[in-house]
């Protein structure tokens, strides 16, 4: 059986640098890559994830949420922890670029 490919830290840094300077929406691209690699989510799961899975009603970042069964690639709900600082920072940056008056800060 073939081994699954492994992306080294240097390769990920390079991908993020390229994403940050290319495409129509570099901030979005960095947020997508950072979130996918930081959480293990599939791209289709992330695309279907509602904003309230990341933010509380007062626009603070949740510590824990879940990938709902209807979103999950395997049809099973699983926990999702927003504890990775790089992921949270990237999503906040994208949210601030998308909706400047959303109440989020970079801190």
Characterization of this structure:
The chain is mainly α. The chain has one domain (20-98). 43% of the residues lie in helices and 7% in strands. It is built from 4 helices and 2 strands, in the order αααββα. It has helices at residues 9-20, 26-39, 43-48, 85-98; strands spanning 64-67, 78-81. It has a two-stranded antiparallel sheet. α2 (26-39) packs antiparallel against α4 (85-98). It is globular and about 45 Å long. The N and C termini lie far apart (45 Å). The model has no long low-confidence stretch (mean pLDDT 89).
User: Helical region count?
Assistant: 4
Counting helices, strands and paired strands, the structural category is mainly alpha
Multimeric status of the protein: single chain
Order of helices and strands: HHHEEH
Mean pLDDT across residues: 89
Shape: globular
Q: Give Rg in angstroms.
A: 15 Å
Helix content: 40-55%
Strand order of the largest sheet: 1-2
Largest sheet: 2 strands, antiparallel
Taken together, the total number of domains comes to 1
Spans where pLDDT lies below 50 across 5 or more residues: none
Give the DSSP E fraction (strand runs of 2 or more residues).
5-15%
For the termini, the CA-CA separation is 45 Å
Give the strand tally.
2
